[in-house]
Amino acid sequence: MSARAAAVAERLRRLLPAMWLGLMLALGAVAAPSLFGLLDRPSAGRVAGRLFAIEAQLSLLLCVVLGLIERARAARLAQGGGGSRFSGELLLILGALFCTVLGHHALQPMLEAARAGQGVWSFATLHAAASGLFGLKALIVAALAWRAARP
């Protein structure tokens, strides 16, 4: 990797987690509550569900991009004198990926089934689990952004 490409990757490694966290906070703390304050519950739920689906797709993309950047960074550091190719940042990225896949791609179909009166768990239980995973992912992304901001 050229020095210029490495510099761009380093800037993205520092910028993307902060932007990702900002998106999550705006969605979870501003957009979703505002929707339920302005619209009827079914309409607000549909719009919020769409926003969270978009966030999940962006999260998958960011996990891939940041994972590739982090793997290249860890490989450069390992060549320079040791160290593992598996970094704490990569572990955080994998944690965010796990929360995204479980919270959106696994629980979302179960939420739809519960809304239709099917399934083992209630909508409220599944919604609480999905919300908890979103909150955990926000904490993981905050830790990633904090670590990326270090000198």
Structure description:
By secondary structure, the chain is mostly helical. It has one domain. The protein is built from four helices and no strands. Helix 2 packs antiparallel against helix 3. The chain is elongated and about 60 Å long. The chain starts with a helix and ends with a helix. The mean pLDDT is 93.
What is the approximate shape? elongated
Number of helices: 4
Helical residue percent band: over 70%
Mean pLDDT over the full residue set:
93
Compressed to H and E, one letter per element, the order equals HHHH
Measured on Cα atoms, how large is the radius of gyration? 18 Å
Number of strands: 0
Number of domains: 1
Ranges where pLDDT stays below 50 over 5 or more residues in a row are none
Largest sheet: none
CA-CA gap between termini: 22 Å
**What structural class is derived from the secondary structure elements?**
mainly alpha
Regarding quaternary structure, how should these chains be classified? single chain
Strand share of the residues? under 5%
Q: What are the SSEs and their pairings?
A:
Blueprint: H1 3-38, H2 41-79, H3 88-115, H4 123-148
Helix pairs in contact: 1-2, 1-4, 2-3, 3-4
Name the descriptors.
151 residues, mainly alpha, 85% helix
